[in-house]
Write a structure and sequence with these properties.
Elements lengths: L8 H9 L4 H19 L11 H4 L3 H15 L10 H27 L9 H7 L10 H18 L4 H11 L4 H8 L3 H16 L7
């Protein structure tokens, strides 16, 4: 497999070559970066943008390897204002955000369901897309993203509802959510009711 060389390859390696104990620096820097990744990905690798299935590798290993390769291949510049560990962390944080954005963009394009006025069962378990004209796609995306933002703000701090909502966004069905959250289906229905009540309390929705 041919490695693609980035425009910062020469500059990065000149800086790396100037360091006497570069192996020790790499080891310490990668360790700090790994700790940072573990903190950032806490409880976020079971579903969503950072899953093993989506990334094709262990999430921690994936982002750590990406940052390491980005420096070595010159894809990213090791800037003078950063230590090696700081630069690795900058790369990781940027890549994490990029992967989340990819996921949100994909879902926004695929999801054409407008929440307001939806039957609750359809809204939370089926999520079948509604047919619509192409010139309305952008409007639906804006509306969808705003509604998601409002819901997530309303349930912030409630771990059960946050986990339930993440399952809904992943398109999981009632039985799958119950298995994932280690609850029985009736308990999942109660969570759904609580979530609907949260939404009803928001001025952005008319339920």
């Amino acid at each position: 497999m041919k490695v693609e060389i980035g425009k910062y390859f020469e500059g990065n390696h000149k800086k790396l070559d100037s360091i006497v104990e570069i192996d020790k620096l790499w080891a310490a820097s990668l360790k700090k970066c790994e700790t940072h990744i573990r903190f950032r990905l806490k409880n976020k690798t079971l579903y969503g943008a950072h899953t093993h299935i989506r990334l094709g590798a262990d999430p921690i290993e994936y982002y750590l390897t990406y940052a390491y390769d980005a420096i070595l291949t010159g894809k990213w510049q090791w800037k003078d204002k950063y230590t090696l560990s700081q630069q690795l962390i900058v790369i990781v944080d940027s890549t994490l955000s990029t992967e989340v954005e990819k996921t949100h963009t994909k879902k926004a394009k695929e999801n054409t369901t407008v929440f307001a006025g939806e039957d609750a069962e359809t809204m939370f378990y089926d999520q079948e897309p509604l047919p619509g004209e192409e010139d309305q796609i952008m409007i639906r995306e804006i509306l969808f993203n705003k509604q998601v933002s409002v819901i997530e703000e309303a349930i912030q701090g409630d771990n059960d509802l946050e986990n339930f909502w993440e399952c809904i966004k992943e398109g999981m069905k009632r039985v799958d959510i119950a298995e994932f959250m280690e609850r029985n289906p009736k308990q999942i229905d109660k969570l759904r009711e609580r979530l609907i009540e949260k939404i009803k309390d928001s001025p952005y929705f008319e339920m």
